[in-house]
């Protein structure tokens, strides 16, 4: 009798309990119940969602590809219409020039105002300098060449390398040590040209080490300011010849960090622009990755929170792309002009507090740019500006109403 019970217990032990299935359930008495209907019906909604998501993802990828290859003209027209709707034509294009020289223009700035006699009447005309491969050329607003100066030729052919100027700055301040001089910034040196001399030539002025990458120059009433993209610093020079480095501006300090200054963060493309603002007595600087314009006191170098501002891309009139603006300039009346890099390269007008005023609409014939290029502006006066493209096309704009 005992043997039979033992064998029966062993037989039960060999029978493995059935695993609870995906659609099983256990009642209150502990018994497992199994549904007998087809489980594929349960999985069908899940399969439907997977198919829908897959189709949506594929459609999204195809849409991105189509948008990428739309004609440039269509995307540019749409882009500018976002800003220009319901705006009066504040700046209108009045002339276009194709500058044959210098080759590969890379910098532009306002030149001296020239006087000429016409039928007994003295007329004044604005000029601008354009620098590129091997030379600087002075033009008037009719696109006529007035003069040119070469950078000089290396002693040997093996030393000959073409370096494009990064920035130009013409000094027209009566009491400034460099009055009537054109300053030309290269990667790690600054040359100058004294335009007051009859047979002037371009001469060396300041040199920097190989760790520098100069991108912009500006002056106030007596000093010179140099922007170094590589070091993210603005150098201030003073003295009787403006060769004495007296200050470094733009670094994060304990004092300005407490006020909210987070430092200069610049784009991978070598853009770092500065401009002197007379009414603020400050140096304005582009802080492109943060979509900001920073203001620093020209006398002390301290960051000015109240005069600094930002425009994120989410704002309808904000700066676009990953890192803009890359260039800026200041009108005599205090308005601020910014230029952005990209295929549409918008040029915008702001007041001193960063309030958007106007977007300059480029003519449809303007040559499209690549994603890293920009239109380089030069302000001739409160009512006239020029924009230079990398191809040498120059657009002259005039203000249609008096500046405010």
Question: How would you describe what is shown here?
Answer:
With 404 residues, the chain is an alpha+beta fold. The protein contains 4 helices and 28 strands. The protein has helices at 2-14, 40-68, 72-84, 254-259; strands at 24-26, 32-34, 91-98, 107-110, 114-118, 121-125, 127-131, 135-140, 145-150, 167-170, 181-185, 189-194, 203-207, 214-219, 224-228, 233-238, 244-249, 274-277, 282-287, 292-297, 309-310, 327-330, 336-339, 347-350, 356-359, 376-381, 384-388, 393-399. The strands form 8 sheets. The chain has a 4-stranded antiparallel beta sheet, with no helix packed on it. Strands 4-7-8-9 form a 4-stranded antiparallel beta sheet, with no helix packed on it. The relative contact order is 0.11. The model is unreliable at 18-23, 35-42 and 68-86 (pLDDT under 50).
């Amino acid at each position: 009798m005992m043997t039979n019970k033992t064998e029966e217990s062993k037989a039960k032990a060999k029978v493995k309990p059935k695993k609870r299935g995906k659609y099983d359930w256990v009642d209150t008495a502990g018994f497992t119940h199994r549904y007998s209907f087809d489980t594929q019906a349960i999985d069908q909604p899940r399969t439907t969602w997977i198919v829908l998501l897959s189709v949506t993802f594929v459609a999204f990828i195809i849409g991105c590809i189509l948008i990428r290859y739309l004609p440039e003209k269509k995307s540019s027209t749409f882009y500018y219409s976002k800003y220009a709707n319901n705006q009066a034509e504040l700046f209108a294009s009045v002339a276009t020039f194709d500058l044959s020289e210098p080759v590969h223009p890379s910098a532009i700035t306002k030149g001296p105002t020239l006087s000429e006699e016409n039928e007994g009447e003295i007329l004044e005309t604005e000029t601008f300098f354009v620098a590129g491969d091997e030379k600087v050329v002075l033009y008037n607003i009719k696109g006529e060449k007035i003069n040119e100066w070469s950078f000089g030729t290396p002693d040997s052919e093996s030393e000959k390398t073409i370096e494009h100027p990064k920035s130009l700055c013409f000094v027209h301040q009566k009491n400034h040590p460099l009055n009537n001089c054109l300053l030309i910034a290269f990667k790690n040196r600054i040359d100058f040209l004294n335009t007051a001399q009859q047979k002037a030539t371009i001469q060396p002025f300041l040199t920097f080490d190989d760790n520098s990458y100069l991108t912009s120059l500006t002056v106030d009433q007596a000093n010179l300011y140099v922007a170094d993209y590589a070091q993210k610093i603005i150098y201030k020079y003073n003295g009787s010849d403006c060769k004495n480095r007296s200050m470094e501006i733009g670094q994060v300090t304990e004092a300005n960090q407490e006020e909210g200054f987070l430092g200069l963060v610049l784009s991978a493309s070598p853009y770092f622009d500065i401009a002197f603002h007379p009414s603020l007595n400050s140096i304005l600087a582009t802080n492109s990755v943060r979509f900001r314009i920073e203001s620093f006191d020209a006398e002390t170098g301290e960051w000015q929170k109240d005069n600094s501002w930002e425009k994120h891309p989410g704002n309808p009139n904000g700066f676009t792309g990953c890192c803009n603006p890359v260039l800026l300039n200041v009108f005599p009346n205090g308005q601020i002009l910014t230029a952005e890099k990209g295929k549409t390269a918008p040029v915008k007008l702001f007041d001193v507090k960063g309030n958007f005023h106007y977007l300059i609409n480029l003519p449809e014939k303007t040559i499209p740019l690549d994603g890293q290029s920009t239109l380089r502006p030069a302000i001739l006066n409160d009512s006239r500006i020029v924009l230079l493209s990398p191809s040498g096309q120059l657009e002259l704009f005039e203000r249609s109403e008096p500046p405010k």
